[in-house]
């Protein structure tokens, strides 16, 4: 590797390489100013987070002038090309208060690194890398999504609102090979066999799908950087800087220059430079688990380094957060995922949380059966860890309520179940999940239905319900992170209590309440004479004879202590 560095240096001198400097985006002044407004004293715990997940390309177009790059102009199948959503569009909605009004305290968006330039067909029609999972260069932001200055602005704007940012990261594979996107060298990737998903080996040492080169993440053998990547960096005027940074990284860590460690360096650069708060990690079970522990170690180092450099921008003492997508992991499995011939504890390999694929089927049960189950598992098998619950997502072809016939019930299940919640963009506006003419997961990925929200009263009513529950959840860590207890069966009333050191939070919630006058039993949880506020109806009540009385047409009550 040292020979490579010397050779590159000589080449640069011989061919009069440009003087290269790392492109560091200027800090937007207006963002730096609003950082002073951040609610630093508002408690936040990842165990009860309310996470909003969106496809960067499908949410909001903040910069239409950058919709076409790298001559990506070929026709594609329905919803399989770039639609214009970008980083600037997400920032616009943060500034407008959309996420705050929805009670969101963390945003996860699909990968923004540079994607393959050409299209490919996986059997579902001609497709570009609009979704962000087809990496060409981990060190660059794809111009279709934005640039470094826009990412700086997004993170700082989010932090000014008390919202954390999760980057979606891919270590498992590169993008597909196309006519203009060459395959990475054979000491970096395997191009077969395809995964069979019946054993540990044929789930990790294989290609996820055809023509998706798999990074040799299990290898410790040093490799040289691909010629195509070196040429790209040279053309962009940043070759020497990238090489210098890699040299410093490997000197500091002592890692061999194996493929996974290069990528870990590139991924943690986004923490070092932008101060992102966590990673949502893609295709976790397709990589040997030790790699995730190594990524977490480097992420922690980068996060602490960033905090020291930016003390005035630190939100709280929460460590770096990693949530993993172990496809088909369910909360009932506890800490172990079973490959058939081997069980793996990903929680012991860098992850605070895993995405829970089980809620979409649990949602068929009654409220208390769901809440009781999750309360038990999170306080026994998963004590000290957590899950991220969802009902719909970008790649689950069997979502709960695909026809959007139960939007209020879906909100109640998702936002009130113990654990962290993942609101998939458009859950709150009943964005259609069945789009005519689409193939495969494209049907789940239509552009956000802003016009429906602006013009349809039914959608506005649904949205308001999601807002009320979301804000209550964000204001009360007890909802997602607290212990659950049923207070009354009919009408259904339950409590949540969360204690962390000197911090204590307690709430009571009523669901499926009758219209008109209703009595909610809270005896044993709130004392006689306690003043409570129902945030759903904006009504103050007092506990009398172990009950509170409400009179309205709402079927939901969200009770908190009057401060």
Give a short summary of the structure.
The protein contains 17 helices and 24 strands. By secondary structure, it is α/β, with parallel strands linked by helices. An 8-stranded parallel β-barrel has the order 1-2-7-10-11-14-15-16.
Word description of this protein:
- With 563 residues, the protein is of the alpha/beta class.
- The protein has 17 helices and 24 strands.
- The strands form seven sheets. Strands 1-2-7-10-11-14-15-16 form an eight-stranded parallel β-barrel. A six-stranded antiparallel β-sheet has the order 17-18-19-24-21-22. A two-stranded antiparallel ribbon has the order 3-6.
- It starts with a helix and ends with a strand.
- The N terminus is likely disordered.
Give the CA-CA distance, first to last residue. Answer: 63 Å
Q: Count of DSSP helices?
A: 17
Number of strands: 24
* Proportion of strand residues: 15-25%
**Side-by-side strand order of the widest sheet:** 1-2-7-10-11-14-15-16
The residue fraction in helices comes out at 25-40%
């Amino acid at each position: 590797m040292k020979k490579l560095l010397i050779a590159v240096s000589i080449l640069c001198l011989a061919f009069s390489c440009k003087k290269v400097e790392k492109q560091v985006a200027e800090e937007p002044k207006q963002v730096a100013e609003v950082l002073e407004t951040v609610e630093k004293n508002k408690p936040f715990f990842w165990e009860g987070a309310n996470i909003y997940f969106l496809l960067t390309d499908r949410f909001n177009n903040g910069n239409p002038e950058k919709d076409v790059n790298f001559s990506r102009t070929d026709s594609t199948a329905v919803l399989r090309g770039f639609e214009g959503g970008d980083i600037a569009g997400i920032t616009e909605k943060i500034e407008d208060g959309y996420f705050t009004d929805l009670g969101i305290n963390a945003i996860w968006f699909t990968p923004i690194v540079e994607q393959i330039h050409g299209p490919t067909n996986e059997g579902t029609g001609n497709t570009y890398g609009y979704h962000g999972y087809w990496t060409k260069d981990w060190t660059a932001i794809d111009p279709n999504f934005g640039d470094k200055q826009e990412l700086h602005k997004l993170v700082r704007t989010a932090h000014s609102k008390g919202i954390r940012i999760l980057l979606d990261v891919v270590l498992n594979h590169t993008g597909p090979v196309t006519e203009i996107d060459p395959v990475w060298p054979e000491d970096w990737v395997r191009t077969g066999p395809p995964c069979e998903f019946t054993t540990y080996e044929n789930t990790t040492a294989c290609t996820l799908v055809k023509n998706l080169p798999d990074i040799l993440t299990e290898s410790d053998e040093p490799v040289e950087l691909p010629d195509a990547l070196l040429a790209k960096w040279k053309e962009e005027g940043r070759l020497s800087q990238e090489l210098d940074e890699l040299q410093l990284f490997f000197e500091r860590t002592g890692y061999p220059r194996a493929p996974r460690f290069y990528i870990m360096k590139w991924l943690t650069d986004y923490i070092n430079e932008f101060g992102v708060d966590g990673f949502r990690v893609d295709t976790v079970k397709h990589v040997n688990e030790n790699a995730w522990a190594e990524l977490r170690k480097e992420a922690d180092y980068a996060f602490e380094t960033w905090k020291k450099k930016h003390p005035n921008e630190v939100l709280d003492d929460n460590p770096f957060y990693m949530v993993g997508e172990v496809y088909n992991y369910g909360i009932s499995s506890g800490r172990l995922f079973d490959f058939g011939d081997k069980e793996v504890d990903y929680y012991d390999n860098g992850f605070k949380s895993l995405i829970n694929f089980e809620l979409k089927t649990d949602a068929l049960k009654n409220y208390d059966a769901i809440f009781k189950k999750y309360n038990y598992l999170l306080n026994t098998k998963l004590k000290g860890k957590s899950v991220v619950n969802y009902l719909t997502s970008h790649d689950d072809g069997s979502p709960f309520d695909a026809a959007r016939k139960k939007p209020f019930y879906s909100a109640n299940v998702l936002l009130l179940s113990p654990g962290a919640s993942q609101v998939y963009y458009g859950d709150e506006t009943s964005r259609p999940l069945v789009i005519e003419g689409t193939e495969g997961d494209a049907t789940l990925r239509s552009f956000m239905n802003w016009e429906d929200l602006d013009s349809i009263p039914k959608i506005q009513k649904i949205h308001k319900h999601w807002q009320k529950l979301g804000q209550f959840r964000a204001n009360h860590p007890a909802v997602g992170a607290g212990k659950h207890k049923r207070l009354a069966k009919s009408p259904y009333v339950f409590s949540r209590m969360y204690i962390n050191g000197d911090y204590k939070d307690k709430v009571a919630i009523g669901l499926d309440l009758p219209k008109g006058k209703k009595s909610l039993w809270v005896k044993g949880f709130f004392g006689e004479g306690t003043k409570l506020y129902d945030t759903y109806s904006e009504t103050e009540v007092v506990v009398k004879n172990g009950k509170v009385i409400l009179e309205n047409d709402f079927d939901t009550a969200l009770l908190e202590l009057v401060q």
